[in-house]
Amino acid sequence: MRLDHTHDVTAKSWLESANLKDTPFPLQNLPFGVFRRTGTAEGFRGGVALGDQVIDLGALADAAALHGLAVEAARACAKPGLNQFFDMGPTAWRALRHTLFALFKADGRSQSSSQHRSQLDTPGIDVLEKCLVAQSDVEYCVPAQIGDYTDFYTSLDHARNIVKLIRPDAIVSPNFHWIPSAYHGRVSSIGVSGQQIRRPFGQRLKAGSQEPELQACGRLDYELELGIFVGTGNEQGTRIPVESAEDHVFGLCLLNDWSARDIQSWESAPLGPFLAKNFATTLSPWIVTMDALAPYRAPWTRSEGEPQPLPYLSSAGTYESGAMDIQLEVSLETRETRRNGMSPTRLSRTSFRHQYWTVAQMVAHHTIGGCNLRSGDLLGSGTISGPTHGEAGALIELTEAGRAPLKLPNGESRSFLEDGDIVVMTGWCERPGYARIGFGENRGEVTPAKWA
Amino acid sequence: MRLDHTHDVTAKSWLESANLKDTPFPLQNLPFGVFRRTGTAEGFRGGVALGDQVIDLGALADAAALHGLAVEAARACAKPGLNQFFDMGPTAWRALRHTLFALFKADGRSQSSSQHRSQLDTPGIDVLEKCLVAQSDVEYCVPAQIGDYTDFYTSLDHARNIVKLIRPDAIVSPNFHWIPSAYHGRVSSIGVSGQQIRRPFGQRLKAGSQEPELQACGRLDYELELGIFVGTGNEQGTRIPVESAEDHVFGLCLLNDWSARDIQSWESAPLGPFLAKNFATTLSPWIVTMDALAPYRAPWTRSEGEPQPLPYLSSAGTYESGAMDIQLEVSLETRETRRNGMSPTRLSRTSFRHQYWTVAQMVAHHTIGGCNLRSGDLLGSGTISGPTHGEAGALIELTEAGRAPLKLPNGESRSFLEDGDIVVMTGWCERPGYARIGFGENRGEVTPAKWA
User: Where Ca(2+) is bound, by residue (chains A, B) (predicted)?
Assistant: First the structure.
């Protein structure tokens, strides 16, 4: 994590859409995803978002005069998953980032064709333009072949909110203060923004009843999380020290950990959530790299009375800049709001900087027993809730387990999600003197239960 | 699940080692695995165990006159993982089983070369012999690319044993009687028999202490389980009905769910076990098919006072032959017993027929919320413990959480596993009028903790 010229706020692209005030994808961002032209039989392949375009990395490797590690890296991206590119490590990731920054930066080059500049070892803008595909014309897939997905539980505010709902005098499990808690999640049902989420059936126990019944979920919820893609892994039986843990992380995306609360409360003892979570998980298509996030790091602190972490979770880096100030927002579209052309309703707004445990601590803890991470593995941050009510990352917290339904501006109300609801998550970073970079959108639509 | 001529106990092979009384792999078994010649750079590929040999399926497809679906199936096996073969479904699995049975059956054919029998559409024994590799010359890998690994918790005897250790008056969680409980496990650390298990580090809380410490695991344990390989999956948002669930299962192997009990007790609330389990899981190399297991099915019953399952977990098939009488045994080798050339010590002996939930119920429950299974996914049965003390599937049960150490015949004692211990699991089926078929061995060795 270091600042360099790719974070220079004054840098502009010759691609005008990358310089627009509201784009999530200015030249300083350069997030990675996997795409193809919508509805075609083209192969999915790696690309980088810039303005309203996708840079087709395989096409760029074929067409442009990339050099050395950057061309190898671009070719490694020209596949349906970014695993091989991830596995090349931070030097290769950075080489490609720097090359893309240089190629797409406005440097006084005219729009002249490459013929007029053949003596220069840099492709002309006309060549580069042929490697662009409009984002409006593409569809995305999950950007890596995910070997394992681990979901953490790292927001103390979320943990406190949940515990209070169960019993006002209950306390958060003592191990929360010592362990970046986690459990293994389901890989097969992970999808990308635009995913349709069929309301699941499952067992639930009605209040006062001794016998469960099989029903469509009546308390469907979202959870606002960040997804963390592992870049490089470790051998089984070894650990990743907290000091170097971030070198193993490629980048972050938005993650919706859909949750069936009624199924969850009946099934979860003693092994944790299973069917309540494994029917679907939705990712945003773009992975914002750790390099792009460098300017938005924040100090990480422990409130008074909270224990300091054990040495294997502690390093100077953890304290100075372990947190990340990533702004997050969840909005809801309903069938009604869409029919009436109304704006989505904002449900919450928070920042990732409130998390009790850092990304480096998650990685270090995950491997302390010798568990091997692999390139392309996914970690979920756990629900991100800030300290105030409007910062809660799930409906169960916002509505006090349904007891205090949310009123929407159009008169509708919500205790939990209804069929046709679309949950939209967005994220961005901003800091004076630096660019505003975005994560794009994570959208998922609830469809009715179906006995199929 | 049907009986046919491949279950005929009188059938013998022209390969003599397949007819020996003690072989786990007679002609009636034909289990699948993935192998290569030890220490070579050969590609791993699918094979079938017969006597003391491995039938190299790719070589067989190239060399012998296989027909139709059987040759397609054999070619699909000629890869480092059996996923594509699994995905072909039960008709293809059966076609290959029947073809192998016919080719390797002693049918009065002499050992004459194929030249003398060229008018017949069956390869000569000399051709088939060239497709055999001695098991003593091969090494194995995990037999499929596992997309997701789910570990169940389906032995009521195990659940009762564990609960009693915590508090004598405690009861098994009420949902146990309604749900084939499960949680997602770790794929990356799954290995095959022969795996070395490095003793993990992890947080543990000493009795009476408020603050955990990082230590090498002091209570390392095994868990005796069966691994269940998913043959064909389901689309996300659909379910697999219990009536057809077994058609989606390819077969079973032996599984050791290594467990760090001290780490487990501190970390598991509220999300379930994580680092206590994810450092390693060991599989036996051979998958015994559901077809081979057909003669050893057993009725499945609910004791009086136990609730009948909800309709989605209930079918005539579940009751009549839902259980499987698979004999299981765990033995321990120590550094001392090896040094002195002593036999391993048998720690327990039980049968899979005691499980509270069936394989079909596990599959049906897993998908009732629309979670998609994929070819090659692995389900663990959960620890298999029978009703009596000597049938417990883990040391924590056998030694009452270490309070009653086991005495070994050589004077050693064990509360939990020590460095150098090798846990050996074996399994087999037998029934009057049918062949005795085996699972082979699942061995794993504990190596010392290392701060690496």
Answer: 151, 223, 225
- Helices (H), strands (E): how many in chain A? 11, 26
For chain B, list the domains and their CATH numbers. 5-141 (2.30.30.230), 149-447 (3.90.850.10)
Residues β-bridged to residue B377: none
User: Which chain B residues are Cβ-neighbours of A248 within 8 angstroms?
Assistant: none
> Which 8-state DSSP code applies to residue B28?
T
**Residue B340 burial by CB count (10 A; 0-12/13-18/19+): exposed, middle or buried?**
exposed
Task: Answer whether A178 sits within 8 Å of B370, measured CB to CB.
Answer: no
Name the packing angle between helices A68-77 and A90-104 (round to 10°).
100
Contact B179 A312 (CB under 8 A): no
Among the ranges given (A66-75, A160-169, B26-35, B340-349), the one the predictor scored with the smallest mean pLDDT:
A160-169
* Cα gap B318→A389, rounded to integer Å: 49
- Inform me whether the C-beta atom of residue A181 falls under 8 Å from chain B C-beta atoms: yes
ipTM of the complex: 0.96
- Which single residue is written with the structure tokens 């103390």? A156
Residues of A in contact with B191 (CB under 8 A): 236
Identify which of A148, A202, A271 has the shortest CB distance to residue B272: A271
* Average model confidence (pLDDT) across chain B: 95
DSSP B246-295: GGGEEEEEEEE--EEHHHHHHH-TTT--STTTTT-EEE-S-BEEHHHHGG
The DSSP secondary-structure symbol of A271 reads T
Identify all chain B residues contacting A173, using CB atoms and an 8 Å cutoff: 269-270
Residue B270, preceding peptide bond in cis (omega within 30° of 0): yes
Each residue's pLDDT tens digit, B332-370: 999 999 999 999 999 999 999 999 999 999 999 999 999
Residue B120, helix vs strand vs coil: coil
